[in-house]
């Protein structure tokens, strides 16, 4: 998990908000459910090379994206512009507590991203 929050455009995301979004997304992965018209969480292939943590490789089938919204963990509706990216392998659990776990890759936003390529993302700056 990140040790600091992130800023992109008008939004600032705390470590707790990032953790909550990834936790909710991981729960949905485990129960094989998705939310919203765009079916989040879903695979993120990073075809446009958005900067992410080095452990998160382009094309990894376990790399997922999920909206991060100010009202709390996303549960459908408008996903807004910001996303968390994480790795989650089916069956991956914390060895001590036995809870499903995911690995943080990064946070990104459509806000302020270049208009080309279409639907591009930009990375977020540490707060």
Automatic annotation (TrEMBL):
Q: Which UniProt keywords apply?
A: Disulfide bond, Endonuclease, Hydrolase, Lyase, Nuclease
* SUPFAM superfamilies with a match to the protein in the record: Microbial ribonucleases
Q: Name one GO molecular function term.
A: ribonuclease T1 activity
Q: Where is this region: Disordered?
A: 38-60
PANTHER family per UniProt: EXTRACELLULAR GUANYL-SPECIFIC RIBONUCLEASE RNTA (AFU_ORTHOLOGUE AFUA_4G03230)
Which enzyme class?
lyase
Note whether Cell membrane occurs among the keywords.
no
- What this protein is called in its record is ribonuclease T1
Q: Which Pfam families match?
A: Ribonuclease
Stated family? Belongs to the ribonuclease N1/T1 family.
| Catalysed transformations (reactions) | [RNA] containing guanosine + H2O = an [RNA fragment]-3'-guanosine-3'-phosphate + a 5'-hydroxy-ribonucleotide-3'-[RNA fragment]
Listed EC numbers: 4.6.1.24
């Amino acid at each position: 998990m990140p040790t600091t929050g992130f800023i992109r455009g008008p939004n600032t995301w705390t470590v707790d908000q990032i953790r909550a979004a990834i936790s909710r997304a991981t729960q949905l992965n485990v129960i094989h459910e998705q939310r919203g018209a765009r079916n989040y969480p879903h695979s993120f292939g990073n075809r446009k090379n958005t900067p992410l943590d080095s452990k998160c490789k382009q094309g990894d089938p376990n790399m997922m994206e999920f909206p991060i919204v100010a009202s709390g963990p996303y549960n459908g509706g408008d996903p807004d512009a910001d996303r968390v990216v994480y790795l989650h392998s089916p069956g991956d659990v914390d060895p001590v507590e036995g809870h499903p776990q995911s690995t943080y890759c990064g946070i990104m936003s459509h806000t302020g991203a270049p208009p080309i390529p279409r639907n591009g993302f930009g990375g977020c700056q540490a707060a």
